[in-house]
Amino acid sequence: MEIIPEKIAIGFIGLGVMGHSMAGHILDAGFKLHVYNRTKSKADGLVEKGAVLEDSVKNLARASDVIISIVGFPKDVEQVYLGQGGVLENAKEGGFVIEMTTSDPALAVDLYDKGKEKGIQVLDAPVSGGDLGARNAALTIMVGGDRPAFDTMFPVLEIMGKNIVYQGKAGAGQHTKMANQIAIAAGMVAMCESLTYASRAGLDPEAVLDCISQGAAGSWSLSNLGPRIIKNDDQPGFFIKHFIKDMVIASDSSKAMGLDVPGLDLALSLYKKMAEKGLENNGTQALYKLYQ
Ligand code: NAP
Fold first, then answer.
1. What is the pLDDT at residue 271?
2. pLDDT of residue 240
3. Residue 106 needs a FRET pair 20 to 30 A away by CA distance; which of 99, 171, 205, 236 works?
4. pLDDT band (50, 70, 90) for residue 129
């Protein structure tokens, strides 16, 4: 498949915090765009710009050469892809799927295998970079599947991201995302403890952040979520409920490999406390509230 935007129909499923911006970039690049979302009104802005709103996954799949999805949980991925009304039953033979939800590596392999039986090439391509990365088309995209399918879809991935890396066979994208989430998890705890300490010591939090985010402690979280913590801004960003989902997948996957991950376990236990307090729809930076 040669990627000539005017000649290719892309179907985009999942128009939430991430998907709405990502689908907008696809539309801006000149592709014919078909969209589907559980809550239809989230498609409004895209439909005004020329996207076609489909009333079912089935109709979207039948109309599209390339299908991209970024829904919430693995169970949503199963609902969208498997079964009679799903993508794999209805996508065109010779078509491509780019599944970008943060989901279970084993499910990614299952979709790849089932896609192959139907002549559909499936890539698992979860992302990192948050709501800002999606808005600025600057996502990191970690991709698993067949290398030729990756090479063919690279121009499409490039519309949404800047750092796009082929990681290996099906499931390797999701495993890379789990490594990413393990790196972030304990870092979120460290950031909240550090900023709470600075505040208790009577320091100016903005001056502290300016200083330590440029030094050896610097991180994406400190630079992008630290300022939200200082402003008491708990808006997602990245939902706590999704971070818990990721940490559970990473923890189960680690256990299956016989690997102990005490840092991840600690972060997961603290975020579960947040969910018990009814804060699962807050952004992940709201963890600082546990320290107040
Ligand atoms: P979100 O705002 O909840 O978006 C998910 C969208 O998918 C929602 O609009 C939802 O519909 C739709 N959806 C869910 N199940 C569906 C189904 N069966 N059929 C059709 N539409 C369905 O979440 P998000 O923040 O964009 O995150 C999406 C995924 O990306 C998650 O797996 C998350 O872990 C991952 N991620 C997020 C970030 C971030 O910073 N936000 C960063 C990296 C990765 P409704 O509107 O009806 O709920």
1. 98
2. 98
3. 236
4. very high
Domain that holds residue 216: 179-291
With a pLDDT cut of 90, the percent of the chain lying above it is: 97
Give me the count of residues in the chain.
Answer: 292
Of 172, 195, 226, the domain-final residue: 172
Alpha carbon distances (Å) from 264 to 19, 185, 188, 231, 277:
27, 6, 10, 27, 20
Task: Kindly report the pTM of this predicted structure.
Answer: 0.95
CATH number of the CATH domain containing 195: 1.10.1040.10
What tens digit of pLDDT does each residue of 182-199 get? 999 999 999 999 999 999
Give yes or no for residue 83 having a pLDDT over 90: no
Concerning whether 177 is annotated as a catalytic residue, the answer is yes
Q: How far apart are CA 287 and CA 146, in angstroms?
A: 38
Ligand 1 — pocket residues by CB below 6 A?
A: 13-19, 37-39, 42, 70-72, 76, 79-80, 101-102, 127-128, 130-131, 237-239, 242, 246
The catalytic residue among 177, 255, 277, 289 is: 177
Question: What would the 3-class secondary structure string for 31-58 be?
Answer: CEEEEECCCHHHHHHHHHCCCEECCCHH
Same domain, yes or no: 96 and 137: yes
Distance 13 CA to ligand 1 centre (A): 9
